[in-house]
Amino acid sequence: MQFAPLLIHLLSAIALATAVPVTLHNSAHGQSNVKGAAYFLTNEPSGNMIMVASLTSDGHVAFKDAVSAGGRGAHATGAPGPDPLMSQGALHTSAAGQFLVAVNAGSNTLSMFSIDSKDPTKLKQVGTPVSSEGEFPISVAINKKATQVCVLNAGLVNGVNCYTVDKSLGLIRQADTLRSLNLKSDPGPMASAAHQIAFNDVNDKLVVTAVGAPGFLAVWNVTPNGTLSENFSTITPPSGGMNPFSLTAVPGTNALVSADTALGMDLWDLSSLSAANVGGNQTASGRSASLAFSGQAANCWSSFSSKTGNFYFIDAGASIITEVNLDKTSMKPSVVKQYLQTSESATIDSDIASLGGKDFLYVLAPNATSIDVLSLDAPGNAKKVGSFNFAAMAKQMKVKINPDNLQGLTTFVPKA
Ligand SMILES: *[C@@H]1O[C@H](CO)[C@@H](O)[C@H](O)[C@H]1NC(C)=O
Ligand SMILES: *[C@@H]1O[C@H](CO)[C@@H](O)[C@H](O)[C@H]1NC(C)=O
Ligand SMILES: *[C@@H]1O[C@H](CO)[C@@H](O)[C@H](O)[C@H]1NC(C)=O
Ligand SMILES: *[C@@H]1O[C@H](CO)[C@@H](O)[C@H](O)[C@H]1NC(C)=O
Predict the structure, then answer these.
(1) What is the pTM of this model?
(2) How much is the average pLDDT of 140-145?
(3) Cβ(367) – ligand 4 distance below 6 Å
(4) Is 227's C-beta closer than 6 angstroms to any atom of ligand 1?
(5) Which ligand has its closest atom nearest to the C-alpha of 82?
(6) 349 - beta bridge partners?
């Protein structure tokens, strides 16, 4: 290994035992301490539900409600086990727009909900579910101004499509944004041809992590009016990279990071792209780099903390979280620390919420029917807050939970 010995932060049984009991009912008492909410999908083929939890200022999770996502979930063909959509971003919130968008992968639709800023556990559907204009929608992206939503279709009919946002009608199909990836999906209509859709930080590029040998980034230019370039540029991974999965924009730069299931992570420096070769084949150059993680099995998810300035990568196979720093000037990535989670809990989607001046990392652990919470106290100092189990609440509400079908995790914190 090329990096210094890593400190593995072992979680004690004591930390797990500190998890607060599941809250079964909304009550006036305790609401005042609700500082935000977390949401994930049951993604059941018989009916997709959005599981809703409140977040308190100390990072704790209390499961409150389950709301129909307005369609069916799905599980990728030939991919048993957790991570059914093989994606990051199956649902997303917009802080600026105070809404949530979720995919119904089995219905080829997406749904929009407004979020009550006084009680973000209250969701209200806006309009009706809209067609994703393709098959097996698995990931959504929302621009910073909350005026545009784009979806990634990863099935046999794969590609991207975008919508404008209407506060009363919901998502409105946007002309000149339906673009194909032209990927042959094998072995079936619900095999994942791609993993995530995201904007770069300045929102002038729409980026997809596509599956291939090697996998690649598909990058469309986004014009000021929101239309997409006719063709996408194909960016092959930096040396060592092979299977980019997630996408997290690096704030203040024209770069994104991806978890890479082949080794750890990739950094994509889009400022190095040739403007003269839009729609062509390009290589990741400039400050692009890849980095191997110790113990890597299946690094697929990533989040950024503005408080620590670091990225957190989630490995489902090893149940390890790896904290990575990018050097301020060279952008060279390095591992800060690794945090071992409960073995076989299959840690997947993650998000970071800022509550009471502190960042908390929320990680969906489907095999443990839990959300794991880490308090990001300082760089290299993430502390386990607890594992919050939702099995009892789901049973009480008669919501079907299959750990293999759960997907997506997103949080929302109302503006102060
Ligand atoms: C959007 O902008 C592009 C590029 O500037 C232009 O070609 C296109 O006609 C515009 N479309 C609309 C609907 O305004
Ligand atoms: C997009 O790609 C097609 C097929 O390669 C090509 O004919 C077309 O000119 C390209 N469009 C642009 C705007 O480069
Ligand atoms: C990019 O490279 C691939 C594989 O070599 C090739 O099939 C494709 O036609 C190339 N695309 C362009 C626009 O040159
Ligand atoms: C999930 O749990 C099952 C047993 O219930 C186990 O076989 C499997 O390896 C676990 N998955 C992961 C990714 O840890």
Answers:
(1) 0.92
(2) 98
(3) yes
(4) yes
(5) 4
(6) none
